[in-house]
Amino acid sequence: MTKTKPTSARSHAGNKTVLNPLADDIRAGQSFELLKELHILTREGKLNQDSRRKLKQVYHLYQFIEKLLLELDNARASMPDSGAAALNSDYSDSRQGQGRDKLPMAANLTSSGITLADHGAGKSYLGFILYDLFFKSRATGHIYGIETRAELVEKSRELALRLGFERMSFLNLTVAQSAQSDELPESIDLVTALHACDSATDDAIAFGLQKKARFMVLVPCCQAEVARVLSQHKALALSRTPLSELWRHPLHTREMGSQITNVLRCLYLEARGYQVTVTELVGWEHSMKNELIIARYTGQFKRGAAQRLQVLLTEFGLQSLLYTRFTGLPDNSPAEVLAIAD
After folding, report:
1. Backbone phi, psi, residue 190, to 5°
2. pTM exceeding the 0.70 threshold for the entire prediction
3. CA-CA distance, 342 to 331, in Å (whole number)?
4. Cβ(212)–Cβ(92) below 8 Å
5. For the chain, what is the total number of helices (H) and then of strands (E)?
6. What pLDDT band is residue 299 in, cutting at 50, 70 and 90?
7. In 10 A of CB 99, how many CB atoms?
């Protein structure tokens, strides 16, 4: 059986068939104008090595997010507005009561379409490509890009206006501020945070919990908060346990702090009703910031995950994070933590 090359790899000029040299790099349906505006393509429509690497990362992440968007899209299409509203109410009640029943996929759906919040948006590569490949062909849905650098927010607004991407909004806010902003809806279907630095990923998780997010897609970056705490208590830790050799040297402290941070985040999400998958975003040759965390809300609040999280915080001298990063645990008083650790 002979294989034929995909038609997307060809363009026709008169009677001649000309191969598209970018067909292997750019997805079918992708706007070349957008890629030029984002400076991924040159003005001549060419792709350099650095841009190819960046585009590969964004496309790889898009593949994961597209599946989640299609789930939301299919659930919305099969659900009357009144039913979605009722389920949204049930979803909220279940979260408040730490419910354990798995909730329907249609929970949190509204007639306004899928809502997505992209934290630490930067130049909004991800948001624009998501809109171009998924949202643009649909009549509803909205993307909110959240970024602290005002000049990037303004440039993104101008680009969205030029391209006619009417259902994109860009907000000059921190992740924490966005959770209280009236410019975003009360609920968000999908939260993304691509390389949100240090504790901004934790803020994105808190945002997702507050906004009753159905999915969260996180690529953490520069997790320094735990490493700082480990450094402060290093002498005491060395006297307590030989395990502290794992973070005695500064380089190991940073690596260990990053590993612990993401483990704690995953346990916290599981304790708050999410099923968590951790995988590799792209090959290490493309980026060292490579861990991809995907959280799917199921309504199964795992007490065991909460207990293990509290034990780890005690073991590593990180109990203070209970009152800053992990405030949503059911039992986070000092007495409870010590009892579980014993």
Report:
1. -140, 130
2. yes
3. 15
4. yes
5. 12, 9
6. very high
7. 16
Contacts of 10 (CB under 8 A, 6+ apart): 17, 18, 19, 20, 23
Amino acid at 39: H
pLDDT in tens, 130-164: 999 999 999 999 999 999 999 999 999 999 999 99
Residue 251, burial from CB neighbour count under 10 angstroms (0-12, 13-18, 19+): exposed
Element (H, E) at 296: strand 291-297
Helices (H), 29-171: 32-37, 49-77, 81-96, 125-130, 150-163
Please, what are the domains in the chain? 28-78+112-222 (3.40.50.150), 223-272+303-342 (no CATH)
Q: Which residues of 7-23 are buried (b: 16+ CB within 10 A; e: fewer)?
A: eeeeeeeeeeeeeeebb
Tokens of 193: 């945070």
Question: What's the alpha-carbon Rg for the chain, to the nearest Å?
Answer: 22
Q: What's the gap between Cα 130 and its chain centre?
A: 13
Q: How far apart are CA 56 and CA 51, in angstroms?
A: 8
Which of 320, 301, 300 lies closest to 310 in space, CA to CA?
320
